[in-house]
Amino acid sequence: MTTTQHAQRMNFTKAAPKVFKAMIALDAAATEGLDPALVELVQIRSSQLNHCAYCLDMHTRDARRAGESEERIHLLSAWREAGLHTEKEQAALALTEAVTVLTDGFVPDEVYERAARHFEEEELAHLIALIFTINAWNRIAVATRKTPGTE
Question: Which of 79, 82, 94, 114 could cross-link with 75 by S-S, CB 3.0 to 4.6 Å?
């Protein structure tokens, strides 16, 4: 099997420093009050769905440093079947998938209500912000072909 290495299209950080700085601030605000392990799981799952190699590489490494197990990381794409994640994590992952993909143009009530049972309103708002923030990061990295393992 051969792989095709695509050259990075631009250095977004240098090309749009104010936007990058605003994204960093948004990211920090979104993750405030959320469990760091949950943050990494959400970021990995969204990055899987968006095929963002750069973010997958970064957040997988960050999850390992935070103590996340290899098994839970490797089986994240099959979290429903794996049975390795808590009910709260599963609710967050279901919401991540619904917000990231928006298959039918909306987030189903049952997905939102499941998350609302596990997260207080403020925490749920931060979770939603985390999901749309990682989606924005994914789109930046995919559009610019940010190379995994680079700064």
Answer: 82
> Can you tell me whether residue 41 is helix, strand or coil?
helix
- Per-residue CA distances from 92 to 14, 79, 113 (Å): 33, 11, 11
Helices (H) and strands (E) counted in the chain, each on its own, are 9, 0
Residue pair 110/116 in contact by the 8 Å Cβ criterion = no
Does domain 15-144 sit in CATH 1.20.1290.10?
yes
Domains of the chain: which residue ranges? 15-144
CA 45 to each of CA 39, 77, 150: distance values in angstroms, whole numbers, following the listed order: 10, 7, 20
| CA atoms of 112 and 129, how far apart (whole Å) | 14
Please give the structure tokens belonging to residue 92: 């967050």
Q: What is the pLDDT of residues 3-22, one digit of tens each?
A: 566 788 999 999 999 999 99
- Which DSSP category does 85 fall into? S
- pLDDT tens for each residue of 57-111: 999 999 999 899 999 999 999 999 999 999 999 999 999 999 999 877 899 999 9
What is the DSSP code string of 54-75? HHHHHHHHHHHHTT--HHHHHT
